[in-house]
Amino acid sequence: MIELIKKLTALDGTSGDEGDIRNYIISEISQFCRYKVDSLGNIIAEKKGKKEPSKKIMLDAHMDEVGLIITSITDDGFLRFKTLGGINTSALMFKRVKIGGKIPGAISGKPIHLCSGDEDKKLPKTDTLYIDIGASSKKEAEKLVSVGDRAVFTSDFTECGNKIISKALDDRIGCAILIKLIKEYDEFDFTAVFSVQEEIGLRGAKVATYSVNPDAAVIIEGTTAADIADVAEEKRVCFLGKGPAVSFMDRSTVYDREYYLAAINSGISVQPKRAVAGGNNSGAVHLTRAGVRTIAISVPCRYIHSSSSAADTWDIMSAFDLCKFMINYIAND
Question: Which pLDDT score, from 0 to 100, does residue 326 have?
């Protein structure tokens, strides 16, 4: 599974531009299921098992990653941009990026030695930053980059003991889990959705869920872990190495109470997500049509939405085991 995650994170796929990651996923699953790609770009895969479940079950993981979109080019050849998804300014400053899959650049802003007053004590606003691609003029930059091009963090996949560090762990981990389920799990039928445009508003999942029309859904996601130095115990949200986090509530969803308790009492290493914050595709999924009973299984990630997200391999495998458990639980309910 870790080798699969490495291959998935090496691919670029910002919201609305998931073509490369979609093509790779299709190459991995096409021999194991029936699938289609809808008009928005979601992959909807039907995996047949040995038995038909009592309820129609959908599992979802989103393909897109956070990134940048080029909005203008200055006269002196610098690129202005907007973020695709929630990226803190501190995660942007002086990071290397790749534009259009090939053009390298570096994010920067006003030099610290030219800041005055309180400027050197505060993070700059994102709209004051720019990407430097080494061009000396607008004309030179336009030979390499166009308005509307996408940029992603430049990041090497690194293993540190039982931890992995990379861009796009949210949610290429979820995609890897879904691929592994399609290849290996065969007890009950289920529908796997690899959705688009989660980072900019849960759009792909909304469309896919309307099409699939499930009775129950399992959302596989990455979530913020703040188990780091100088963060108070009650604010750490979840911890690496203690299994996937299961949410009881966030800003967009109150999760199915029965499914939440089933996961917590599954006998698999899991932890409650100890914050009513954030959100994921559940927010769109559980409100579709007449409503969908929903649970979110989230792999804890430190430094999420950055070039150096970190996750624990034990948590990833436990999340895979919990997904199998929940399919069986829902199928027999």
Answer: 97
